[in-house]
Design brief:
There is one protein chain. With 215 residues, the protein is an all-alpha fold. Helix content is 90%, strand content 0%. It is elongated. 19% of the residues are buried. Helix 1 runs antiparallel to helix 6, helix 2 runs antiparallel to helix 4 and helix 4 runs antiparallel to helix 5. The protein has one domain. The two termini are 17 Å apart.
């Protein structure tokens, strides 16, 4: 084997180690962080997967160069390995898409939960604020007994109405809660898809490795 052959072979092996390995590790870690609802880490893992997937094309290129230099294109294990590599690349593209969908779902879930929390806080503070405003208006008004009694009655009715509205709002499922549930469901589906596709892709890499060693 000439120096050029050895150089291409080592480039082929080195690129495979430093591109396919990190991409596989990022893919297999993604479902765990989706379960933890860690949007930042899932987005980071998606970027890693995308970068190393593009870089893994060099593995295919160096493999083609080696096969051409040794006239191995007619051998079955070369055809099988090339086909499996293309299938793995397609699966990686699908995984990157699913990672993006999971990130979007986690962001929607976080936004919906924040909106729901704000709505609950406003509902809890509304009766107290209304009652305080009513009491202040009653104290600043006329001192006539009839007027005072009417103002206090109106204030009490307003506070009771606000309290009833707040309780009704708290007990009724809101749109943010429904959106959060839908987003969580989508994230769970994508977590399962990424785990299954990642397992198939890892199996393909293993088969290609076996073909390379036991050819």
């Amino acid at each position: 084997m000439s120096f050029t052959d050895r150089l291409i072979l080592w480039l082929h092996i080195g690129v495979a180690i430093f591109t396919i390995g990190p991409a596989t590790a990022a893919i297999m870690s993604t479902p765990r962080y989706i379960r933890k609802h860690d949007t930042a880490v899932v987005g980071f893992l998606r970027r890693i997967t995308r970068v190393y997937t593009v870089a893994s094309l060099l593995v295919f290129v160096f493999g083609l160069v080696l096969a051409d230099m040794h006239n191995d294109f007619s051998k079955p294990w070369i055809s099988i390995s090339m086909t499996l590599f293309v299938v793995a690349l397609v699966l990686l593209v699908l995984i990157i898409r699913d990672q993006g969908t999971a990130v979007a779902a986690l962001e929607r879930e976080a936004a919906a939960m924040a909106s729901q929390t704000s709505a609950v806080v406003l509902a809890e503070n509304a009766p107290a604020g209304t009652a305080s405003a009513g009491a202040g208006n009653a104290g600043a008004g006329s001192a006539k007994p009839g007027d005072t009694q009417t103002a206090q009655s109106g204030t009490a009715d307003s506070a009771a109405s606000s309290a009833a509205t707040a309780v009704s709002t708290a007990e009724t499922p809101s749109a943010p809660a429904a959106n959060a549930d839908d987003a969580e469901r989508i994230a769970a589906v994508e977590r399962g898809r990424i785990a299954s596709l990642g397992g198939v892709t890892s199996l393909i890499w293993l088969v290609i490795l076996i073909l390379m060693v036991w050819r």
